[in-house]
Amino acid sequence: MEDTPAKPVDGKPKTEPGGAATIPSIPGDGSGGPGATVSARTRPRSPFMVRLAFSFVATIGLALAVVIWSEWWFWGRWRPEDSALGFVETVLGYALVVQIVRFVCARWGVAASGAGAWRRVFLAGALYGWLVEGVLVTTVIDDLPLTLVNTALSWHALFTVLLGWWWMPRALAASARSSLVALVAVGIGVGGWASFWRFEEGASPSVPEYAVFAALTTVGYAVGLALWWWMRWRARPGLPGTIVAMLVLAVFSVAYAIDRPLTLVGPALVGLALLALFSTRPGTVQPDVLGSAGPAPYRSLWRLAIIPAVAVPVFAAFAALPTPIPTGWPVFAVSVVLGTVLFVVAWLAAAVNARRSKNQ
After folding, report:
1. Rounded (5°) CA angle 138-142-143
2. Is 260 helix (H, G, I), strand (E, B) or coil?
3. For residue 196, how far is the Cα from the chain centroid?
4. pLDDT tens column, 254-299
5. If DSSP codes are grouped into helix, strand and coil, which group holds residue 106?
6. Alpha-carbon dihedral of residues 43, 48, 49, 53, nearest 10 degrees?
7. Cα distance between residue 46 and residue 54, in whole Å
């Protein structure tokens, strides 16, 4: 997971009159704004093992953040089979996926800002979702053809990556009023979705139990974001860590395929996502790459407390109803269609934009 030093947009080193290197800044990284100069003497290249450790921490931090969205907020409660060891294993498994996605985003220029940035972010989300559901596990073939989209595109790409990884940090960096609206919306969604499991599986944690769950998972999300942001420029994803992650997931794929060849659908979908990202590479790469840094200052993380503050009353309101409400079915129906449409639209629109940027 070695970091790779950031390169200027035009690929040429830039210097100030005194010989200090000019490093493009990432919004909120504390480097002093676009084009802030940082002396080479104050930012030396760290030893390989140090860079490897920095990148590992960044990947683990981001893995922790996305696990909260992909797993814990999906299930909406503590389950009987959950354990501390299982949680660690889940974070490490997701870290393999996160490392690959971070590397691809850095090498193929998946920008986190700019007009239409969401398009390639969503394509990166598709890569993430199909790596999780089609390689890390094999749920992508559980109920074909529905599981080609659900939950890789309908949850992982749409909610975890587009919202939790990309949009939410930007909402935190916005004004207090804008953040409040975004966080209240997330809180309503988290609490409303959690109440769905009472209808779907008969699972009905008490309101105090859910309050503890919502608070702790939100803290986990905040810690994950903080670790990721802490590494910013030091944690560019490198080739060594990515090769290790790819080899481990390749072993999984081979083992699954030996037992059930149909599981190769998963790697094929990963290839489709890679093709989408490769074919939409822009002519000019933005410095704020999706997998390398977050934009919000640490002091904004306290705002995340709004999520459980809203989610718990919403959950309690549904729990008080005499008959459980299938709150998840509208979400399921819309997200499956929306995830499919967004993948197609994002690919086509990003391809047109890439062609235009290369012709300029």
Report:
1. 145
2. coil
3. 24
4. 999 999 999 999 999 999 999 999 988 876 666 566 655 555 677 8
5. helix
6. 60
7. 10
